[in-house]
Amino acid sequence: MTERVRKALYPGTFDPIHNGHLDIIGRAAKLVDHLVIGVATNIGKGPLFTVDERVDLVSSECADISARTGAKIEVLPFDTLLMTFASKIGAIMIVRGLRAVSDFDYEFQMSGMNARLNPDVETVFLPASERQHFISSRFVKEIAILGGDITSFVPATTLERVHARLQQR
To answer: Which of 6, 72, 99, 133 is catalytic?
Structure first.
């Protein structure tokens, strides 16, 4: 008898990945055998990095989480409906991080729509840790663009790449 692999999908734009994302990834990796981090193309958000750059950055920032938790972590780009991508990779659950009540309202509605599209995939909500609940990629980018210090919001490699990207502009 083959052992069932619990595969989850944690989707986002990750532009840039920040400590709040890494907190959710680390906690989700404790719950599953295989965590796929789906990096959405989503050019409508005006990304700082290309999807390939974001996949590379997320991969490098998550390497130690995989080693620490024992979960396989895979980072893949996607540009389809979330549930289409979840089915394609064989995910049984979607992991979503919640920072505030406003996140819950949106995510609750989205989970209902997703359940209608594919009732075999569950949505699991993980609340952001107390130290990370206020961080968002949008705020990180805005602070960095305006010359503020984002050191406490992002890991070191991301910090370097954000600074390098802003110097190119």
So the answer is: 99
Q: SS3 for 87-114, per residue?
A: HHHCCCEEEEEECCHHHHHHHHHHHHHH
> Per-domain residue ranges for the chain?
7-168
Condensed to tens digits (0 to 9), the pLDDT of residues 79-99 reads 999 999 999 999 999 999 998
Out of 30, 45, 68, 138, the active site residue is 45
pTM above 0.90, yes or no: yes
Catalytic, 30? Answer no
d(CA 79, CA 18): 21
**Annotation marks residue 152 as catalytic:** no
Q: Indicate the DSSP class of residue 131.
A: T
CB 57 within 8 A of CB 22: no
Give per-residue pLDDT as tens, 136-163.
999 999 999 999 999 999 999 999 999 9
Catalytic residue among 7, 18, 21, 161: 21
45 catalytic residue (yes or no) = yes
Fold classification of 7-168 (topology level): Rossmann fold (3.40.50)
Q: Please confirm, yes or no, whether 102 is among the known catalytic residues.
A: no
